[in-house]
Design brief:
This protein has about 300 residues and is α/β, with parallel strands linked by helices. The strands form five sheets. It has a three-stranded parallel sheet, with helices on one face. Strands 4-5-8 form a three-stranded antiparallel sheet. A hairpin with a 3-residue loop joins strand 6 and strand 7. The N and C termini lie far apart (about 50 Å).
């Protein structure tokens, strides 16, 4: 029997703006879960969506993480520098007959779709599955999905299941604007980096079945998944740049890290708030229990 692979986790922020409290929660949980299991923690900047990338945001994210005392393994990975890997994966799927060209515009999908997907958008009706109509040109590339239920066990949320054909539809791998889709990029990167444990916000839970199917199509193993509650404001909106979530300030140091741990259901003694950063991290690694993380999908952040 082969020995178990070493635990390898990651944190993958999108540089659309500075880190906010919700991002810090995901960073803390993924970091502690990796270190508590004697594993590695890799940092990836998910800047594949060029139009949404804010100038200087990536550098600001790195400075913020360093200011809070995070230490990552290996070099920081930037998705914008890995386009050849995404292209190679797309070609594999095309040659296998799993990816197909799609000429549909948003207006055409809106006119023919009859259901909504789990993401809230219109469920693609498969108009181009059998081939492009005469005279039509490919705008995007989609992945064929099966009419079967994907079942997996989430380390926080418990049993999860999703039928891709009925709840998601054939999804985009290469967008009409020439940008590779998040679903393809994240799967390729996780496989290339040997990530075997994904800890992230529950807002990405509905993407997991898509990513498992993509991994199966490419012949790669799936990691374990743990989806954390997301931090929301008083209006019930997830903290983000769009909801004007304030940036976290590393000068608040341990105090803000303690808030993140308590948000994650971890008991924190009063003396922890007075620790120096290195001492705090040593204590937090030993005290971390993912079993204590709440199964709620959202928790109010009282900023």
């Amino acid at each position: 029997m082969n020995p178990p692979l070493p635990h390898r986790g990651r944190f993958a922020p999108s540089p659309t703006g500075p880190l906010h409290f919700g991002s810090l929660v995901a960073a803390v949980a993924s970091y502690l879960d990796a270190r508590a299991n004697g594993g590695e923690w890799w940092l990836r900047i998910e800047d594949i969506d060029v139009p949404r990338t804010a100038p200087g945001a990536a550098d600001g994210i790195l400075r913020t993480l360093e200011g809070f005392g995070f230490e990552w393994d290996g070099e920081v990975v930037f998705q914008s520098r890995r386009l050849d890997l995404y292209h190679a994966a797309l070609v594999r799927l095309q040659l296998a007959g799993l990816a197909y060209p799609c000429s549909c515009s948003r207006r055409e999908i809106a006119a023919s779709a009859t259901r909504r997907s789990v993401d809230g958008g219109l469920l693609y009706p498969g108009s181009c599955r059998a081939g492009l109509r005469d005279g039509a040109a490919a705008r995007a590339w989609r992945l064929r999905v099966p009419d079967r239920e994907f079942v997996f066990r989430d380390r926080v949320q418990g049993a999860a299941r999703q039928n891709l054909e009925r709840e998601v539809g054939d999804f985009v791998l290469l967008r009409a604007d020439g940008q590779y889709a998040y679903q393809l990029a994240v799967v390729v990167d996780d496989a290339a980096q040997g990530i075997n444990s994904v800890v992230r916000g529950v807002d990405l839970l509905d993407s997991t079945a898509r990513q498992i199917w993509l991994l199966q199509c490419l012949g790669w193993p799936a990691p374990s998944y743990a989806h954390l509650p997301v931090a929301v404001n008083r209006a019930g909106e997830k903290l983000s740049k769009q909801t004007r979530a304030p940036a976290v300030d590393p000068s608040r140091g341990v105090g803000l890290l303690v808030r993140a741990l308590r948000f994650l259901g971890q008991p924190v003694p009063g003396e922890a708030e007075r620790m120096a950063l290195p001492d705090f991290w040593r204590w937090a690694v030993g005290a971390w229990r993912i079993s204590r993380v709440p199964t709620a999908r959202a928790i109010l952040f009282r900023g």
